[in-house]
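Lab notebook, bench 4. The sequencing result for the construct came back, and we need a structural model before the next group meeting so we can plan mutations. Quick request posted to the team channel:

Model the 3D structure of this chain.
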Amino acid sequence: MPTSSDLPNYMQTPTEEQLAALNMAMDGKSFKVVAYAGAGKTTTLKLIGERLRGRGLYLAFNKAIANEARQKFPAHVDCRTFHSLAYRHVSRDITAKLSLPRFAPKRLGDDLGLQTIQVRRQIEGSSKYVNFTPARQARFVSDAVSHFCSTHASYPAPRHLSFPSWVSEADAEQLREALYPAVEQRWLQSIDPRHPAGIGHDIYLKLWALAKPAIPADFILFDEAQDADPLMMGILTQQPRQVIYVGDAHQQIYEWRGAVNAMKKLPLPQTLLTQSFRFGEPIAEVANLLLKALQEDIPLKGNPDKKSGLAKSLVHGKKDAILCRTNAAAMTQLLMGLKLGHKVALQADTDRMLKFCEAAENLKQGKSAYGVPELAYFYNWSDVQDYAETSEGSDLKTLVKLVDDHGTNIITQAVNSLTDINDADYVISTAHKAKGLEWSRVQLDDDFYYDVTTHGVKISPEELRLLYVACTRAQSNLDIHHISDLISGLKSGKKVIYGS
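Done. Here's the predicted structure in token form:
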């Protein structure tokens, strides 16, 4: 088995945990590496990639991470996203539909021949009838297709339809029966090259999975495995080769996208990386309070060679990143920073924001949203607002809310006043967008969701995980001033009550 003297220079002082992961990889069997924040996961994976023979494949969730990995991994390890793997193996006729305009719910309702349905709603003991318009039903239908695409099922079924919680079970059953033919039709339209409606990336990924693909590699390194949905896990667990799953169950922050926390569910042997190289003990202590609230009993260890602190950042004081929970708060911080004369960068797709604002303004004025494919089939802004509430349109929800809250002029001016990340005083990002990144001095914003009372701390597991991700982005200073009541409550041993 390898010892530290056999290793390349950059790994001359591996931890016992990193050596254990490498030794496990040399056995040729599938296993999982549970890697805490900043615990040298990429270095360990790179080392495994260098030592294993044959064709390797490193799988990441987004293009930026895959591109970055390409610079680090040896030539025999191909670095890609799940989607790029699927994209190469699905007919061009289908992937061409990505650039077609999406159907608004109203147009889709007409296309599917849906008619208004009445449903009972119980309010304070009395029944009231509510109309589900064709557009509203079309949203249920597109959500069902999206849900089906993230599962391991081989064909859409009535169970993939879900309705608001106030719909009675009897009514839900009738609705499933009535709408299932439309779900089936919508799926068949999505995979029909001749149908004019645009599709999302989940459609071709599902098509590829249904073909029971054999991934062309001798070993697979699957990064951020905690964010996988059942579809991705189904593809990987069926591969007859070594798959090494790497991730941190506590960094799973995409449940709303169908992630299933594969790291916990996989019945495979595991090895741990708990020693963080990113930050010292004070930041590790904050992270451990959040981990303990998540019922984790293995602590994260801070780097004894790193000086870290928890000082409060002043308005004009030095900071490298402000992390917010919501895009709306990020926009508020951006507007405030610009007002104070700061040079601010935003961790966001700014070109898309500008084009979207232009299209939104056109729709509000009754003109067409020509030039932005995802909005080209919408006739007015309220149709876009409706569509953004569906799973299929969830990628637009943030932009729609920003336009509704601030107006297109203010957003356009703010985006045009941004500074390049390399020249900025600091970056503003959401905690979701900050995942996988790190900065020297990080300040948390005040928009995280929790409630501290005399009885305890009410917070959801999702929020605890999001805060754990946000806190562990810092290297030398973490400003927790805005969540100090939460940290004090957890430190004093207050009862944690899981709320929604």
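Residues 169-190 form the longest helix (22 residues).
Will bring this to the meeting.
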